[in-house]
Amino acid sequence: MSGASTAPKTLLYSLYCGVSALIAPLAWRKVAGKLRDYGLPEERVRERLGHASLPRPAGRLIWFHAASVGESLSVLTLIARMGERDPAAEFLITSGTPTSAELIAKRMPPRCRHQFPPLDTGTAVDRFLAHWQPDLGVFVESELWPQMLVRARTAGCPLVLLNARLSDKSVAGWTKRPATARFILDQFALLVTQNQKTAANLQAMGAAPDRIRPGSNLKAVSAPLPVDQDALAEVRVSIGDRPVWVASSTHEGEEETVLEAHKAVLKQHPDLCLLLAPRHPERGDAVEALIKDAGLSCARRSKGVLPGPRTQVYLADTLGEVGTWYALCPLVFLGGSLREIGGHNPFEPMQAGSAVITGTGHYNFAETYAELTALGAAAEVRSAAELAEQAAKWLGQPEAFQAARDAAGQFISRQSDQLDKTVDALLALLPDRRP
């Protein structure tokens, strides 16, 4: 598999380089201001100009670049697995947001460090590359910065596009500029896609077919969400032996449907408790009002209240506890899907042993849900009546529910097998060991 670029530079790329240099002072003021507002020290802010705040480690360095929180966290399991396979390898993660930097710092695998990426200007990128001298560069999802790619490849660093995912809008934009699209994609020695649709899009955009390889969605093999064992035990004791179901990551306009479904299921399971965790906890007051309007009793976690024996809805309007709720109950409705919002990550509840109910507005995970519903690991609903019917089915038919959970677990296991193949492919691209 060739890693050398053969497509020529284009006029559009040259124009991009020129414009980048012109707007660099403005871009610098904007990104530096955001980092300073977050309270970061100046040496970390200057990483955006390519000034490293840490020394380069000895030996071979594998560089991962991700856009933000989700993409950054999704590669940590992969880095840990690569580190186990190659104990001499060192790792660098770059991501642009202070939130991602903070979370990465808490979950950093061994022999790994974080930096903010350089602005996509010649001076900043060259300064970054001169210091870090990466032996392999792995760009996650759709984070395609032209100068970063071209200059890294020119410096002799083989590049991989990993977990590739491109929106239809992005594909349409690139296909209008076929020569530049081919030039950018030609910088990659390997393109590992989340699904067949992305593989087909990359090929249509000009990527060499022999460099495209299907892979797993990294989010499917990320470390499970953290569980607060004390909180879990406390809520479990409060609920007792009552049946429970979870509606997590719900958005405005969805809670009404969930509450209507809950009222319907209560007719069959009168002691049922709904644990409702809105995507944005700051909506707690509005959601509590909806619960009261629906004529349901409510306890609210943000106010330190635990569910009592007659609590029909436990409003979990807090941050960072959804992993605890998945550990509490394996029957999960995942929001962001009853409206055209795009859906949320189904792998998180499945890693906790859950089966998932979803609406139809899950276009960000369309191919994943198609496979999950075909396997019986997820169920798709369109209305409050269908949601109530599905929840009641899984509550009342333990064997059917366990079969769905087993199918979800088997799906996650297959993704883990695919991860090992990705590790093999990445390590194979590393040059001979540095002295």
Automatic annotation (TrEMBL):
Keyword Cell membrane: yes
UniProt KW Transcription regulation keyword: no
Catalytic reaction annotation: lipid IVA (E. coli) + CMP-3-deoxy-beta-D-manno-octulosonate = alpha-Kdo-(2->6)-lipid IVA (E. coli) + CMP + H(+)
Residues annotated as domain 3-deoxy-D-manno-octulosonic-acid transferase N-terminal: 43-220
UniProt family annotation: Belongs to the glycosyltransferase group 1 family.
Cell compartment(s), UniProt: Cell membrane
The protein, known as: 3-deoxy-D-manno-octulosonic acid transferase
Domain of life: Bacteria
Pathway(s) the chain acts in: Bacterial outer membrane biogenesis; LPS core biosynthesis
Organism: Leisingera daeponensis
Keywords from the UniProt entry: Cell membrane, Lipopolysaccharide biosynthesis, Membrane, Transferase
General function of this protein: Involved in lipopolysaccharide (LPS) biosynthesis. Catalyzes the transfer of 3-deoxy-D-manno-octulosonate (Kdo) residue(s) from CMP-Kdo to lipid IV(A), the tetraacyldisaccharide-1,4'-bisphosphate precursor of lipid A.
